[in-house]
Request: fold
Amino acid sequence: MTLYTDYLAEIETRKEQGLHAKPIEDAALVSELIAQIKDTGNAEREASLNFFIYNTLPGTTSAAGVKAKFLKEIILGAEEVAEITPTFAFELLSHMKGGPSVEVLLDLALGDDAATAASAAEVLKTQVFLYEADTDRLDAAYKAGNAIAKELLESYAKAEFFTKLPEVEEEIKVVTFIAGIGDISTDLLSPGAEAHSRADRELHGKCMCSPEDQVAIQELQKQHPDARVMLIAEKGTMGVGSSRMSGVNNVALWTGKKASPYVPFVNIAPVVAGTNGISPIFLTTVGVTGGIGIDLDNWVKKTDADGNVVVDEDGEAVLEEAYSVATGTVLTINTKDKTLLDADGNVLKDVSAAFTPQKVEFMKAGGSYAVVFGKKLQTFAAAALGQDLKSAYAPSKEVSVEGQGLTAVEKIFNRNALGTTPGVTLHAGSDVRVKVNVVGSQDTTGPMTAQELEAMAATVISPSVDVGYQSGCHTASVWDKKAQANIPKLMKFMNDFGLVTARDPKGEYHSMTDVIHKVLNDITVDDWDIIVGGDSHTRMSKGVAFGADSGTVALALATGEAAMPIPESVKVTFKGQMAEHMDFRDVVHATQAQMLKQHGDNVFQGRVIEVHIGTLLADQAFTFTDWTAEMKAKASVCISNDETLIGSLELAKSRIQIMIDKGMENAAGTLQGLIDKADARIAEIQSGEKTALVPDANAKYFAEVVVDLDEIVEPMIADPDVNNEDVSKRYTHDTIRPVSYYKAEKKVDLGFVGSCMVHKGDIKIVAQMLKNLEKLNGKVEFKAPLVVAAPTYNIIDELKEEGDWDILQRYSGFTFDDMFPKTQARTEYENILYLERPGCSLCMGNQEKAAKGDTVLATSTRLFQGRVVGDLPEKKGESLLGSTPLVVLAAILGRTPTLEEYKAAVEGINLTKFAPPLQAPSTTKSAHF
Reply:
């Protein structure tokens, strides 16, 4: 069997699934195609030509390297293919984005044949994905007097690769399709259970929404061939939850435009909308593809004759429809006037926010990558020619308010800003390019990140990035055939690229399936850092972190930069005293509830939560910052006092050292560099040279929330409210209920302690409760299964040293074994304790799940429908969220407890406590009161 016959066999298998041939990334297969193309009598020649032209992946794939070399030979006359003329060969090279294709084009442009050089130069003038090796070569040729090199630099200095592109059309006709009522999570657009197929775009596209919705979209396209389908979240926000490029890719695949005729299944420019707009992370991802995201505001609060908001019997505002966007409604977007119009030309909504100069540039360029690289290329060319830069791009919006102080996030952005006007202090609303210090890639989006890096011709991590980390946590639970096929390949790619990887491609260190956010929290060693991670829960307790799609992660890895507006902030402070029987997780839930009570609307959405925790170390503070993803916040910043920050940095140093000791250090000495950086930061704090980050006293906030700890008197539960008559209010994180609401009658089918929301103290609480109940009753019996998954191996090692692991193992009916990891997912559980492998486990729902229709009480983060538990026809699955002690007790009782049962069970247990400082210590230099 040859690679080609294997490929044909795979095609036949895919036909049975309704799929086309898989795009080719392997050099050896392309070499076989070329051999058959050269053989004019070969029966497979025509098919080989089609595969070569239309089905070979571009960028830095090994296949692209072989393809570019063969096209070069055709152009030089060394090979002759009737169907691929030199002119067509140049066209194919122009669609290959960079890497080998740019190398070939530079070979030709700087070569001796004048006609060929001129043709190559014309193609190069359209390219933007040039890296240092390319620009250094061009610069050297220019300095040596090469006329073509000068011509290219002059074109780049004018940014003709951008200015000569067609403008965005003035009117865009759309036809609406309502994908769901209420918030639409990226789980609907790209289900976690289908994570294994994300790198296979056509296959993964089959999982978007439902087969019926896919047919409906196709019918709309047939009925309205002149319109683009606009996917809508009616009465909700589009794209909440996980940061998934795959979700946008799927929407683009079904509703967008083909990026290139020679690159299969890569579509761009989707149009998405929501009554309450687009989730910040999802909107960034839409920009990656040059798409359009619209805030419809088509449902508004009803008011009476006096202008007062009308409320229902539950005290909720009654909504009324301002205009209809029912499926099949034809609308027009005027990009010049920035308005949304109905079929009669009446203006329905101003949509200026969707058409800022920067977003229009993304649309014109076919995505944000081309703009980022274009700016870098124009800057380089101007410098090489000794010219002043005359940017072809819209100037970044710079908002500077004289006399106004800076919030914490504004300070971080000003510190890391790139290319801004010298001496100008920037406030919220400014568009900024910023240096990224820490980049995290997770394992179910990682294959896509690798694809994006190959597509943009990147081969090594940017030297300006302090550390890049590739996790293995989302596929930790089950080492099945899908994981075995995807993960080792991913780890090798990322390790070669320069990241620290959870799994060693050489097998020399133990697989570290630790939860990505926990690792990033440990390896962030400066409170002024900017972190970007391929997961929405990239929310650190040091610095400011942004969950991002796989494409933005790839861009940050390749360039060391990210571009975004400086967000507004909401200040969260605390007063009162935390009750002895309460856990800090209850404070987290109460914050959401008290915010809604104080402001009516979710003021956190799309903004940075500046949380003044101060006295909580990084592990415990992370419980709050991590939860901010569920509050629909863009990010969070944790304000620590000096002493606490030093303690957190010392803890980070110790854990980074453990990573080194386990053999995870790379050739660049990245991990040791982090320890050195932490030491330098500690020295700054101790000397008073630069104290812990604190906002200015006269900073301006969008809103302020004061959390009254005295009001938190019983455990709080975030409830998906699955039976709410208003569909739009289901599966949000706005329904926070005290445990007494359930009257000790709510049956709990499964408890889960784990995910990124827990720390070492939580696992110790499980052990302490078992000890207490064992002492009280002689033994502990579970009336519901309890699944416990520590976030990291370090935590387990520390629990073993401190004696807590022994009692957990004693009660465990299942303990993970790294030597023999599970190969099948578990969906049914006995009434025992399960000690699962460190990682995401049940929280993700892409491997392990509860039985359909179960009621799960968990410490995890997601309430989304079907995430942790699926539905039965007669009963919806529920994933309720609560604190660790509440989950443990509910699993033992098989139901929600009474407040008295809960208090008795936690008596004497060291719960996670929080006490805001009452006054500034005389020694502190960064009080935050």
Observations:
- The chain has 31 helices and 33 strands.
